[in-house]
Amino acid sequence: MSLKAIVFDAYGTLYDIQSVADITEDAFPGYGEIVTQIWRIKQLEYTWLRSLMRRYQDFAAVTRDSLAYTLRVLGLAYDSETFERVIEKYLHLDLYPDAVAALEALRPRKLAILSNGSPDMLNALVRNSGLDRLLDATISVDAKQIFKPSPQAYELIGEVLGTEPSEVLFVSSNPWDVAGAKAFGLNVAWIERVTPEAMALACVENELVAPLTMFKAIRTQMDELGFAPDHRVRALSELPRIAQESPPADNSGMSRPE
Q: Which element (helix H / strand E) includes 68?
């Protein structure tokens, strides 16, 4: 395949969503890990529920609602200042350590993000992390008012970048996102950060299954949906090797999106 663009999921792929754990633990001592995991699980569930119900609210609202749910079911009291301090972390998530070097090595192809994040959230996150100097576009599903893995969300890649699905490599660590992108017809690379072997070891080494282990079992293993990725890698740093096997297409006719 000739690649015109490499498009990344944001949350969990370029940015470590588990990096909220320090602030949740600081805000709710002893509950930081379980808050982090329930929050992310409900956040994803709310995107799917709202898409199916056709009652769209943007990812900023979804993120707030899922945190409120989490704190309520855990019986944790909080004030508005604490709530806002935790929410603010989503604008300052940590990049995975190999993210910047991987993106730099993937030029001259067009580089973009396609994310469930709302425009304000994504633009702040990209700016705060310095990725704005490397990305040609930051694409939010808000333009379609439906969340991934709806095909309408992946259509935005072609509409913004002027590409066909066969000209795009989509990269995600989220199995549900991998399946959605592959079903749409994109070339897909899965960042498999947690292997089944690691999962099995984590389960047998602990008498009780920890919240993080439970989260990994639910959200990090490939789903049985009949759509397998074209590439399985363990880290972003492996992507340049895949790109080298696929010569870049001529991007001379593609303008940089505003």
A: helix 59-73
